[in-house]
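Attaching the record inline, Q. Sequence:
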Amino acid sequence: MRIFAFGCSLTHYFFPTWADILIQQYKNQGYHGENWGRSGAGNQYISTRLWEANTVHKFNKDDVILLQWTSMFRSDRYNMGKGWWTPGNFNLDTNEYNKWREIYDPVNAVMRDCAIISSTSRALETIGCKVITTGFREWQEGWTELSTEFTDRQFLELADVRAILEQYKDEIKLSTPPILNALNFGDSDEFFKSRPTSIPSPDEKLKHMITPEVHPLTHEAATFVDEHVEQLNDQTIDFVEEWKEKLSKDTILQYELNWLQQSQKKCGWSDDRWRP
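Structure, as predicted:
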């Protein structure tokens, strides 16, 4: 009786996510639970860590796997001695894009991730465990951050990208709607202005990292779970309400929440999420 979660910051963040809510619910039923997600992770990281978890735990038909795929326009690396590099989406200005173009190609990214998602899904089917899959946004929509010139949406206009997505459309289906679509999260200036401000650190040097909180708050994530995954029980609802109170402010001080310190444990040999 075990439950494991994999994904990006929609799955593992400074406050409880959709995955943490489900892990909490299953733990109340006697399950062992682990969250292997990571902020900024791409699908290569997500799949790699899932199969690393399998070597540790040997997944079986009684396990529950929470699998949140993310944007295809990301690139993950593991460097010996430095750990994982998961910078998030390649939303770039012209100079940055030209610099990265030699090693990062959006068509290659889509070919890579469609193959990763398809093969991972088929392999999990052979194990027979319960798998709940969700996503970031609809594959064809993309996501725009700030005023960068090269974003998911520009990449998705490429004919080759659209052709690959069409070829794999039956292989990369999800069991629930993508989280941000299900919650009607936008990416307009109006939407960003409606969100609380999120401050990761009191360090003045990190002022540039103060942004609107675009991740679903715990009670918002709970709505997604309750409507699209499974009904929440009373104990889980109490857990969600506790976090709704903690996050009911115009400004969220991430460094005071202590959620990661409370919930995080080392998962697998390559796990370096707590490194400074």
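Residues 145-150 have pLDDT under 50 and may be disordered. The radius of gyration is 18 Å.

More tomorrow.
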